[in-house]
Amino acid sequence: MAIADLPLADTLARPLRDLRISVTDRCQFRCTYCMPREMFGRDFAFLPRQDLLTFEELTRLGRVFAGLGVRKLRLTGGEPLLRRDLERLVAMLAGIDGVEDIALTTNGALLAGKARLLAGAGLRRVTVSLDSLDDAVFMALNDAAFPVAGVLDAIAAAAGAGLPVKVNMVVKRGCNDQSVLPMAEHFRGSGHVLRFIEFMDVGTTNGWRLDDVVAAAEIIALIGERWPLEPLAPSYPGEVACRYRYRDGGGEIGVIASVTQPFCRGCTRARLSADGKLYTCLFAGTGHDLRGPLRAGASDQALREQVAAIWTQRTDRYSEQRTRQTSRTQQQKPKVEMSHIGG
């Protein structure tokens, strides 16, 4: 029996179902929790164009992963809309047998002008990052003088193009935690799902401290005191967000509690960097090279076997192992930056 016909699972019996594809390591923003400007003081260099996987190479790998059980693809970056003609890649990926869902995560800066093209190419949904409705707070976080109105316009354009929208807010204590209630109020009744994300220790440059984390339970308690909430069941196995709905019918919110309520044991995600490295965990230190074999002429079967061998040996559960006592030493270990694999 061929590998493609076998259920693929890692050492903790987690299947491979989702692939996050970074199409570029570049971004116009310098968000302090992702690509802080100070990281460029360390001889940081963006990938040269020839190192990026081409659309044809990404589509071929997408087909390989689909043959191993992947059903959902998400395009990330950096900022994925900086990759020229991204709608062409969406159309190519949409033609892969077995792929049921193609999504995009974006900062929204270029989305308004691209939403209809992307939807027409086969994009199914979009996630937009917005960390505050206060311009001063938001611009301090994105460090690019980009205003809130630009992101809100992008959300409206995506919805107008027929794309379901989720809005992600990374919450950092003493930074934008005062924006939780205004964000909840703004998106109540909008039809968009707002998700609050605990500040995570991805990479090594964002100055993460456990004391800066606003726990998901605290966020839910704060919102629930103002607008009563009730929990919802997961939409599908392995969903990362814990879902809640407003009891008055005002819609739904979610919290992603990677720090305080780790969900490693349900993780079905692989991540492909823009230069063709496969990462089996958001907190991984090293990736597995797929670009080399791909450009050296490896067959699809050989690539499937390589990916299958990597996944079936996967043991990652970093968030479950993270503690206050060990966080300092773990932060000293090199980890891939979020800007390189898109979160």
Question: Could you walk me through the main structural features you see in this protein, from its secondary elements to its overall organization?
Answer:
With 343 residues, this protein is of the alpha/beta class. It is 30% helix and 17% strand. It has twelve helices and twelve strands. The chain has helices spanning 55-66, 86-94, 115-121, 135-142, 148-160, 180-187, 216-226, 291-295, 300-312, 318-321, 324-332, 338-341; strands spanning 18-22, 72-76, 101-106, 125-129, 165-171, 193-198, 229-232, 242-246, 252-256, 269-272, 277-279, 288-289. Strands 7-8-9-6-5-4-3-2-1-10-11-12 form a twelve-stranded mixed β-sheet. Helix 1 (55-66) packs across helix 9 (300-312) and helix 2 (86-94) packs parallel to helix 3 (115-121). It is globular and about 60 Å long. The mean pLDDT is 89.
Uncertain parts: none
> Biggest β-sheet, characterized?
12 strands, mixed
Distance between the ends: 35 Å
Overall pLDDT level = 89
The structural class is alpha/beta
What overall geometry do the principal axes of the alpha carbons give? Answer: globular
User: What's the total helix number?
Assistant: 12
The total beta strand count reads: 12
Element order: H for helix, E for strand:
EHEHEHEHHEHEHEEEEEEHHHHH
**Computed Rg:** 19 Å
Give the helix proportion (percent range).
25-40%
Quaternary form: single chain
Strand order of the largest sheet: 7-8-9-6-5-4-3-2-1-10-11-12
Approximately how much beta-strand content do the residues carry? 15-25%
